[in-house]
């Protein structure tokens, strides 16, 4: 930190270099002002002294309570009702134990409910292989019929993506969109997927479609704006960010990202205004200080530039990598949005 202050004590010359990453970070890191590479919080609780070590391999032990095994997904027979019916016959071809059938059907309903819950994954704690298995069973046994199956495809697509299986993820996203072509969120989800695969054209088509269905879908406006920035379409990016801000004026990151676009255009006054509003809404948003510091530097206001950049690095030390010293001057590389 002392080195940073010393670098800026004489003069700050700002070199605005484009540091854009190809791909979207639809992640929550943008919301809290932390960079995607931020280390995990240091809040892990050490295991208690009375916990016995669990042997893993010779010479290696770990302490703590072993994780509980997750209950398996029920395996549904191909036709459980027919099986119940045939096994419930007791006296001749016409004899039928209706109570046994009722019990069997009740068990079948419980199994179906368990499969659906694993597929839906409400709390997000189910492992991807479990979600994939459950969703696959749901589709194979037609537990959910009609257009409602799009939820199953979307959940399985997300699980495939977490496993790195992009091909199956894309296939499931396509099936979901076929089943619900007028659902803006599914077009948006697939657009984010395409953006992550650096297929900007496909992503842009899906974002356009999503916004054609729901012009107020702020996440789609934001991601399309990011794509416009990557493609140097600053006017398109400013239009999308401005509309997103109109819809969500209290979202600090939107103001900061629009300020970034102004900074790219060397409109330092507008950039400073937007970053200041972002900081007022969220004083912990490190990148807002960084972008405002760069704008102050571009305007020739070295004292304010130094102050903001020092604050930015204090809030997010990883931002220091975007500052390069050269003698008594420093140059800045803009981090990706």
What is this structure's SSE topology?
Blueprint: H1 2-8, H2 29-32, E1 54-57, E2 60-62, H3 80-87, H4 98-120, H5 128-140, H6 149-162, H7 166-179, H8 184-196, H9 200-213, H10 218-230, H11 234-247, H12 252-264, H13 268-281, H14 286-299, H15 302-315, E3 323-326, E4 329-332
Antiparallel strand pairs: 1-2, 3-4
Kindly summarize this structure in a few lines:
By secondary structure, this protein is mainly α.
Shape: elongated
Question: How much helicity do the residues have?
Answer: 55-70%
Kindly state the number of beta strands.
4
Q: Report strand order across the widest sheet.
A: 1-2
Give a verbal description of the structure.
The protein has 337 residues and is mostly helical. It has a domain at 250-337: Alpha Horseshoe (Serine Threonine Protein Phosphatase 5, Tetratricopeptide repeat). The chain has helices spanning 2-8, 29-32, 80-87, 98-120, 128-140, 149-162, 166-179, 184-196, 200-213, 218-230, 234-247, 252-264, 268-281, 286-299, 302-315, and strands at 54-57, 60-62, 323-326, 329-332. A hairpin with a 2-residue loop joins strand 3 (323-326) and strand 4 (329-332). It has a two-stranded antiparallel sheet. Mean pLDDT is 77; it is low at 1-67, 78-82 and 88-93. Helix 13 (268-281) runs antiparallel to helix 14 (286-299). The protein has 15 helices and four strands.
């Amino acid at each position: 930190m002392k080195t940073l202050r010393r670098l800026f004590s004489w003069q700050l010359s700002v070199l605005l270099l484009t540091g854009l990453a190809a791909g979207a970070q639809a992640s929550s890191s943008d919301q809290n002002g932390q960079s995607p590479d931020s280390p995990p919080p240091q809040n892990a609780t050490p295991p208690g002294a009375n916990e016995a070590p669990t042997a893993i391999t010779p010479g290696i032990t770990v302490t703590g309570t072993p994780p509980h095994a997750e209950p398996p997904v029920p395996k549904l027979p191909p036709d459980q009702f027919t099986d119940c019916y045939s096994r419930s016959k007791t006296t001749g071809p016409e004899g039928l134990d209706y109570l046994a059938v009722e019990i069997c059907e009740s068990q079948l309903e419980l199994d179906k409910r368990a499969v659906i819950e694993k597929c839906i994954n409400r709390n997000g704690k189910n492992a991807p292989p479990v979600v994939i298995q459950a969703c696959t069973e749901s589709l194979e046994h037609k537990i959910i019929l009609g257009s409602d199956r799009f939820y199953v495809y979307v959940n399985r697509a997300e699980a495939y993506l977490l496993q790195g299986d992009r091909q199956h993820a894309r296939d499931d996203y396509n099936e979901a969109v076929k089943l619900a072509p007028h659902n803006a969120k599914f077009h948006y989800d697939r657009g984010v997927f395409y953006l992550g695969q650096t297929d900007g054209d496909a992503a842009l088509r899906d974002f356009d479609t999503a916004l054609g269905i729901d012009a107020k879908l702020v996440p789609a406006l934001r991601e399309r704006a990011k794509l416009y920035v990557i493609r140097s379409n600053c006017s398109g990016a400013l239009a999308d960010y401005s509309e997103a801000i109109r819809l969500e004026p209290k979202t600090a990151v939107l103001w900061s990202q629009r300020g970034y676009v102004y900074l790219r255009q060397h409109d330092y006054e507008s950039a400073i205004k937007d970053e200041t509003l972002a900081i007022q809404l969220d004083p912990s948003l490190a990148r807002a200080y960084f972008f405002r510091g760069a704008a102050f530097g571009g305007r020739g206001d070295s004292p304010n530039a130094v102050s903001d950049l020092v604050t930015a690095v204090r809030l997010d030390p990883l931002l220091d990598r975007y500052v390069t010293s050269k003698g008594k001057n420093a140059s800045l590389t803009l981090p990706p949005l």
